[in-house]
Amino acid sequence: MNELWMNEIRGVTVLPQTHDVQGKSKDCEQVEVAAPFSAEGQRERIRALEEELAGVRREQAAMQRSLFEAAQIQRRLCAPRQLDSSGFQIAGEIFPVRHLSGDFFKVFELGGSSLGIVVGDIAGKGLSAGIWMPHLLSLIHSCARTHSDPGDAIAAANRELCGGYGEPPLAAVFFARLEEVSGEICYCNAGLPSPVILKRGNGVESLESGGPMLGATAAATFDTGIATMGKGDTLIACSDGVTECENSCEQELGAAGLLKAVRAYSRSSASQTLFSIIGSMLDFADGQALRDDLTLLVVRRVAASSILQ
């Protein structure tokens, strides 16, 4: 009846419903034919993805090996990690949060009875900071041999760094010349947390003279400070990863916490003091992961035979 009524309306044509049925039948036939090919295509796609994933895993493993090898090269560049000279015991260690560290330290002879020590912290972490580390360490080492005054040496290194190609990194650096006979320290602190000398009688001297971080401007000036270590005195220099170590309450260890740890072990050898401080720092962190690379250098004035390790 609906068809008869619709046919009476001018201009309206009702198509037979058989066409819709035939169309549906054709669609069903197409689905039935295509379904086996779709399933096989999916299996091929899964196999291709599995092969691709295996390739990515192989590349990742190769990259991890390369980063590990690079980290070992960094450690060798920072050798010796322990030195006993005729006037000082020195121990240093680096703990990167990733494979490569932007922190560094170096102990080297400067001729006669003088030793040079460097502690540095390049802004940033991981690969970018790690790539800059060998260059900056070599630059400071070279300038320290050319300029006897630490402030002049750091200024020269800064000019070289800023005068190179590209944008240089910002780097905090502490450099000092140690005189084994007199115990005198000539130093320049360029942006690192102030190193401290813990005196045998528990007095504290902060080493603050210096200037800004390296890499900011070639026109920066740097001052040289002078201090003296008596026998039994201990010098502590570190990157800000040590003092900014946090516990679960988001409290930082700070300079006061570091000094407390130093006081507890300052009569031990330089190596024992270093690892005892690290242990105290990890106890303070109470399981919290380190957020930044950390480097610690301990210098104790004593009398011993000359041994490089």
Q: Which structural traits does this protein have?
A:
7 helices; 309 residues; disordered C terminus; Phosphatase 2c, domain 1; seven-stranded antiparallel beta sheet; 13 strands; alpha+beta; globular; disordered N terminus
Write the layout of secondary structure elements.
Blueprint: H1 2-7, H2 18-77, E1 82-84, E2 88-95, E3 103-109, E4 114-122, H3 127-146, H4 150-162, E5 171-179, E6 184-190, E7 196-198, E8 204-206, E9 210-211, E10 225-228, E11 234-238, H5 240-243, H6 254-265, H7 270-285, E12 294-301, E13 307-308
Parallel strand pairs: 6-9
Antiparallel strand pairs: 1-2, 1-13, 2-12, 3-4, 4-5, 5-6, 6-10, 7-8, 7-11, 11-12
Helix pairs in contact: 3-4, 6-7
**How many structural domains are formed by the residues?**
2
> Which value, in Å, is the CA radius of gyration?
33 Å
CATH first level of the largest domain: Alpha Beta
Shape: globular
* Low-pLDDT regions: 1-35, 304-309
Helicity range: 40-55%
Largest sheet: 7 strands, antiparallel
- The H/E string reads HHEEEEHHEEEEEEEHHHEE
Q: How many β-strand stretches?
A: 13
Q: What is the structural class?
A: alpha+beta
Oligomeric state of shown chains: single chain
The H-level CATH homologous superfamily of the largest domain, spelled out, is PPM-type phosphatase domain
List the strand order in the largest sheet: 8-7-11-12-2-1-13
Short description:
Helices cover 42% and strands 23% of the residues.
Q: How would you describe this protein?
A:
With 309 residues, this protein is α+β, with helices and mostly antiparallel strands. It has 2 domains: 16-63; 80-308, PPM-type phosphatase domain (Phosphatase 2c, domain 1). The protein has 7 helices and 13 strands. It has helices at 2-7, 18-77, 127-146, 150-162, 240-243, 254-265, 270-285; strands at 82-84, 88-95, 103-109, 114-122, 171-179, 184-190, 196-198, 204-206, 210-211, 225-228, 234-238, 294-301, 307-308. The protein has a 7-stranded antiparallel sheet with strand order 8-7-11-12-2-1-13. A hairpin with a 4-residue loop joins strand 3 (103-109) and strand 4 (114-122). Helix 3 (127-146) crosses helix 4 (150-162) and helix 6 (254-265) packs across helix 7. The chain is globular, with a radius of gyration of 33 Å. The termini are far apart. The model is unreliable at 1-35 and 304-309 (pLDDT under 50).
